[in-house]
Structure formats: C-alpha cells, structure tokens
C-alpha cells in the first residue's frame, strides 16, 4: 500500500486530521501553526518546478500521515509536524517514484529541494494540441525533434532535407535539388524571409543552429502564391517561439565547431535567446595539408551568431525578432602557384564572406476570423574573393517586406491576400572570367583555369526592386473538399516584366483515412545577376518560367502511420542557357553569352511512408522515381539534367531505448548522376594545358550510390543539468561511392573520384 | 554577382593528382610548345612557326599538318573552325584575295604571312554582320594555329593563339634561355647540353637551373582594373620536362612583386631508379612562356648514374 493510500485511509478512519493544528474549543486564541518542513520539488536535469505533485509524509510506526500539493513554483509546506523521523514520498505521473527520509527536530525548520527524474526524456513525447488544416498538394514538415537526430546529418537541420521524398542527392552539401530542379531554382526562407547564405563555405554547415529551429517546411512544388521568385521549390525554416520557463544555457561541441546558447525569459510572455558558434577545423587542417606546397594563412574558419526574441504582450499580439550573421574566411598561400595552375597570376587564394540578416514579424489576431502577419527583413552581405588576378568585391544590401491578411468571410470561405516587396542593391568590382561561374549543364571538367578572356565590371549601385501581390481563396463547398485558387503577380525591374501566375490546389478528404489532392500552377524567377549583367551576361534576358502539375493520394490508416503518393510533372521554359551567338550592338559585335532558349521537363512520382513515434520507433521511407531533362539553346536534342536521379530511396529510423539511449539509422540508395564522357583532348600551347573534348552530354552514368549511416545518442541527467553525447558514423560499411572522374593531364587516363570514407563524428551537448 | 569561389581548386589539389604520371614526365608523343617568330606579325610580316615535339625513343614522326583559323570554336568540341574559307571570303568582300589559305602545309615548321588587310582586321575587331564570334583584339587580331603530329601509333593535336598585329599594337619578343645547368653533388656546377656529358645520380635530388636574363621579363603597356593605362612586367612561367623521374615543382613562375625571379629558374630533379626507368640517359626540356604569347625552350640530355 502506498503512502498516499495510507494517508487517505487515515483521513477516512480519523475523519481527516487536518494538516493544520485544530483550533481550541476554549475562548483563548490558539497558537499560530508553524511551518517546520518546507521544500521545492524540481525536475532533475532541467530544474523546472514540478507543479501539482502530491508530497506525502508518514512514519513507519504510525498509520497516519499528511499530504501537501506543490504549487506552480513547485513549493510545498507542512506545519507543526511532530519531531521525529518522517518518510517522504512523491510519485507524480510521468516521473520515477521519489522516496527519502527527513528528521524533524523540535523548534527547528527543515527546508529541502527534491529533484525528480522523468520516466523518459524522449523528445518524441510532444503534445500536439491541434493540427493545422492541410492546404497544399505537397508539404512535408519536420519538427525539431525529428531534425536533430537524423543519422548522417550531424545535427544540421538543413542537411536533413535530402532525406525526404522528391529531394535529390547532391554531391555538395548545401545544394537542394527538389523534383529535378536545379539548386538555384529553390528558395530557402527563414520565417518567410529570404536568406542569401545558408551554408558556411558553400556547404560545410548551415548558418542556423538547431537550437533555434522549431520546424522545417518543405514544398517541392505547387506551393502557395505567398511564395514566389522560384520555379523549383521552397524550404521555410521556422524559428521557435521563445518562452523559456527559466534561464537555460547549452554548449555544443562537435568535430566541426563549438557553440553556446543562452535563453532568458521575458516575464511570462516571452523570451530572448543568444547563440553563437565558431569552427575549429582550422586548428586541425594545417597539420593535414602539405606545408611545403601551401601555407594556410587563414585556415577555413567560420563564425555565426544569432539573437532571437519573442514577446506576446497580449493574446492577440505576437512579436518576434531574429538577427543572424555569419563570417567565413579562408586564405591560402601557395609555394608554387604555377604548379596549381599555369595561368595563376598570383600566389594567394583569399575568400571572405560576411553577412547579417535582421527579421522582425508581428502577428495580430484580433479575433477568430481575422489574422494579419507582417514581416520585415533587412540585411547586408560583403563578399571579397581574390585568386590571382580574379577578383570579386561586392557589397549587397537587401530588404523585404511581406504582409499577409487572412479573413474568414464565412464558414466555408477564407480569403488571404498580401504583398511581398523585395529590394536589392549591389555595388563593387568584379574582374573574372568571361565564361562566368559554372552552370548546370557545363561539363564538370570544362575549366579553362585562368586563361579565359577576363572582363571587368564596376557595379555602382545596381538596384533591383521586385514588388509582388498575391491572393488566395480557401473554399470548402462541401465538407472535406477544399479548393484553393490563387493568383500571384510579380513585377521585376531586372527584366522589366510583370508576370501573372495563377495557381490552384484541391484537397478532398474522402474520409478520416483517405484524401485525394491535385494542383496546377505557374511559377517564375529572374535570371541570376551574372547572367544579366551587361559586361558578363545579356541584359536583355527574361524571367524563367515553369508550370507545375501534381496529383496524389494520402492515406492515414493508423494514427501514427501515413502514406503519401504524389505524381508530378513540370514544364520548364525560357530557361537561361549559354549561347555562342553574337549580336550587333551599336555597330559592334558582342557575344550574347546567354539567352532564354533553354527548356526542360521533369516527371515522376514520390512515395513517403511516415511512422510517427509509436512503440519506441519513428522514421520514414521515401522513394522517388523521376526523369529530369533539359534542352539547351540551339540544341537539337534533350539531355539529362546534371542531377537526374531516376531512383532515390531513403529509409530513416530512430528507436528510443530505456535509460535515455536512442539509436538511429539511415540507408540511401540513389542512381548515379549522369556523366559526360571525355573522348579526346587538345593541347593548348598558349596556356600550357590540355582541354578535353566531350562526347554527348550526360550520355554515361556514374555507379549507383548507397550508404548506411548510424547514430547513437545517450543522455545523462544530473541534478541541475543534462549532458547529451552522440556518435554519428557516416558510411558505416565504407562504400567507395563514385562522385565523378578525375583525369590525368592529357585526359588519356581517368579514375573515379570517391566520396568520403567512413566518418565518425562525435558530439557533446551540455544543457543547463 | 555570384560569389561562389573556385573551391573546386582545393579539391583538385587533393583529388585526382595522385597515381597519375606528373605533367612534366615525358613518356609518349607530345607537343610541348609552339613558337612564333616574330611573336605577333605586323602587316605583311612573316612569322615562322616552330614546334617543340617530344617523341619517345623508337617513335618516328610520320606526318605533320599545319593550319590556321580566324574563328575557332569551343574547346569542348575540339576547337572546330567556325568559318570556312569561302565564308570568310564572302565576309571579307574586296579584301578576300589577301587572306592566306588556312592550310599551312606539312613541314616540320610553317610560316604565316600577315597579308590580311588592316581594314579587314579592323572591321572584324569591331564586328561584321555574319561573323561567327566576337573577338578581343587587345594586342592584335587573334587567330588560332593548329598543328597535328602523327607517329605510327599516336597522334596529338595542338593549338596556339597567334595575334595579327595592327597599327598601334605593341610588339613582343620571345624570351630566351641561354643555358641549362646542374648544381650540387660531387660535380659542382655543371653545364647541361645535348651531348650527355654530365652524369647525375638516380633517386637523389639534384638542383637544375635555367640561365635566363632578368631582362627577358619585358615591361609593357596595359590597363589596370579601372581601365587606366599602366606599365607591367611580364610574368614568366617555366615548365620543366624530364624523361626520368620528376622535378619539384613541375612549373615555376616569376611574378613581379610576388614570386622572385631567381626562384623561378631552378627546380629539384630526382631521376628514377633503374627499376622504374631502365635507360641510362634522360632528356631535360625547359619551356619558358611570357604572358603575351612569347615562348622559348632549351633542351639537354644527361647520363644517369647509379643510386648512391
């Protein structure tokens, strides 16, 4: 029989002797009850107060006892407990039973703090109060607890994207390939604001730490009119609302960097968080590289920092702020620059990228039928890159304003409308190859090094203004059927175009289990600045366009199991493509370099089977079958997209074990990327190098990629803090995946370039 | 402007270089350089085209074919000529008769006389309707020389740029290597020539150097990044070729204010041991290029002794 039952029995048997001393029956006033035993009950590891826990005290030789219930601060009191040895028992739901013994002395007060351990610190034990009604054909949401422990991602939230259906495998981290679209066709937002730089050093690690992420939303196609300026897909990273119950801090140490974060409550209405990271690969790399060939003047190192704040002065008002910034630097001094490249007119390779972005949002919900969300962002980016005579020195300022109002006109009709204004201003100097940066479709080895014609562009305040407006209706003519017609109109000063993009989505929940869905829509995006610059590109280019079609079926046979099958087709037109054509301009011939003569199509299907957390297991199986083709300007036939991957299979599973252990696995099987064969070479006696001659583009294919990653997590819970350790082993069976081919100097011999071998990454996190 | 840097260069440093023969090791038919003297012929001036061809012992050169093209196509397609002689003649109109034929013959050397009308060159530099490509005429109108060399078992194709100098274009002189030498070991300073009089040890690094006067790096007029006229000293790049072993580094360079001149003139040569290279002599060929199409070379043969 538990102490609680004993106390209850005593209450019933003795007509409930109160905790307080009984009032005397005589007229003289009774002495006040004195607290002689008090305490606070906290959760072990987090130090959070445990409210509503019943604290029972009893003695071995006495069937009676007393109870007290902890308040919101976890505090309890007992008055006038007789002196002696008392047993204390606390057994709230969700916690391991707590027992101890206290000695109460006469005329003395005992104050204690008890720490209760949760039965489980499983991050999957989250409470979902309400699910947002689905509007999209394809939208995948990954919550933070799903993001942070995916094997192979080493805790990087954006690296997890590649494991979802419809997402191609990129050889370089940071390149997001959605349904056969080029990485430049996909936009990544943070809380709805475009961010220019997502990864350090173009893919090493994302600039946003997991500590601030609430969830990640992935739209591989047919996305809402509120998103635009992209013909591929959308990734929107949502920052968590900050309302920490108390001050909390954490330190993260991994193979790549060291980070720290601090969260402080702003009363009970909000909170503020500060976080920062610094890489330490620069401390290790110099020891691994040949010092007689190069000197790492500045080994690759990055910093990033974030300040986030949330505040709700009243229920209708939700204010948020995010400031994030990053700085990447690398400088290499070459002992023999001509050995690196015969055209290298210098001996240093220096790169530095710095940026900051400030985002503010205000959500106003005055009532159940109206909502307004205003978002403002501003940022600067400084790029300085120098290799020999090549120079890029650019300062870019950008700003964005988005406002969306949503009104439920009737029970069956909701209207959303908004504006999306983007502004960018660039200035600086570029001295670079006339060929411009590498593009999708360029052969991988087609690099004339430093011998291309070099051009100089001085950019004095180039401005780009892109206002847009959008409207979307949500109709529910009959129960379960949701129709969402919408329209987005973009104006681009860059191309002097105003483009309308009608879009429509339909979802029909046939039952609680079955839903059918379909969508169609038009999408546009501007060329990249180098393509339209009047020195390096063609200033007469137009926006690229795409039409998306998709249809599918969702099945949820069990509360924790869902299946999503979606077929898709994309028609791409007006794609910017290289051209060798020349035009007469002002009486002079100039190369056109680019035109809008490219086109393409993508078609396929995705399957996503998700097992939400149940029976200790969570995970998903994603399979995509697709074909992605392009036709370059002037080409007679189609070619395969650089990352055409007809089959992509990813299986991710996480199993929660007792004693705060967690195991995870990820297996991937992906078709090899298309490869363009080298069929010969010509010696350029001016440049002292060989140039490869290529066969039909994409006419060969690399070997299939497959890899297994494993991860084990362990959490130790101490009285006032917790420590988490993980071991993430990538490529467990050391598969030598082919990522390309390398050639000897005259291209007469080649060998495959292998990806990373088995790579263990150890990480530690302390939470206070 | 995209700020994507050439991080691939870093990969190239680490990725495919191991296990392949180094660039400077000669094992099969190769064209190492093509010299034009004068470097850029002025109007009515004749330039002589001379190749530096390496053929492995026992390989005989069976054929040589020279040609030129005013509008070469992309490298990825093998530099096809984008215009036929007939189309060029139509473009040239009245100036067509002065255009030299594209075929420059089959000799060991070739010549090209710049008889193209200066008026035509100016027009092509500015742009004529129908011409297949725009050109950068800094230093002269660029044409492409093409050389095909064939042995019994092999064939190589080499191209190089040749500028047809116009009025006002500055002339350039080919650099010159006055001699080659070896330094160190018991022999001290030794001059290297084609008579194989010098013996160098195998599997041991010997410093070899080129004798080049500092004046070979000429000062010339150019423009800076702001388009303002300035004077600059030529960059000289040396490529070192050997039949046995390899040199460290394989290329050296002089860049005014960045890479010292004296350091560009020497490398360490480590001939292979007998197991990897059985012959008892090895050739050494050094090619120097400036950054205005000037080129020269010097060759030598050394005897290889035993490993110490």
Biggest contact: A-B, 75 and 68 residues
Shape of chain A: globular
Q: Terminal Cα separation of chain A, in Å?
A: 37 Å
- Strand coverage percent of chain B: 35-45%
Name the shape of chain B in a single word. Answer: globular
Distance between the termini of chain B: 57 Å
Low-confidence stretches of chain B: 1-17
Number of helices of chain B: 3
Please give the count of helices of chain A: 5
- With strands numbered from the N-terminus, the spatial order across the biggest sheet of chain B is 9-8-11-17-15
Helix coverage percent of residues of chain A? under 10%
Describe the main β-sheet of chain B briefly: 5 strands, antiparallel
Could you please describe the fold and organization of this structure?
Chain A is mainly β and 768 residues long. Chain A has two domains: 35-116, Immunoglobulin-like (Sandwich), CATH 2.60.40.1120; 140-458 and 480-767, Maltoporin, Chain A. Chain A is 4% helix and 58% strand. Chain A is built from five helices and 45 strands. In chain A, the strands form nine sheets. Chain A has a 22-stranded antiparallel barrel. Chain A has a five-stranded mixed sheet with strand order 8-15-16-11-12. The longest helix of chain A is centred in the N-terminal third of the chain and has 11 residues, at 3-13. Chain A is globular and about 115 Å long. Mean pLDDT of chain A is 88; it is low at 1-24. With 308 residues, chain B is mainly β. Chain B has two domains: 6-164, no CATH class; 179-304, Immunoglobulin-like (Sandwich). Chain B contains three helices and 19 strands. In chain B, the strands form five sheets. In chain B, strands 9-8-11-17-15 form a five-stranded antiparallel sheet, with no helix packed on it. In chain B, strands 10-19-18-14-16 form a five-stranded mixed sheet, with no helix packed on it. Chain B starts with 7 loop residues before the first helix and ends with a strand. Classes of the chains: A mainly beta (768), B mainly beta (308). The interface between A and B is large, with 75 and 68 residues.
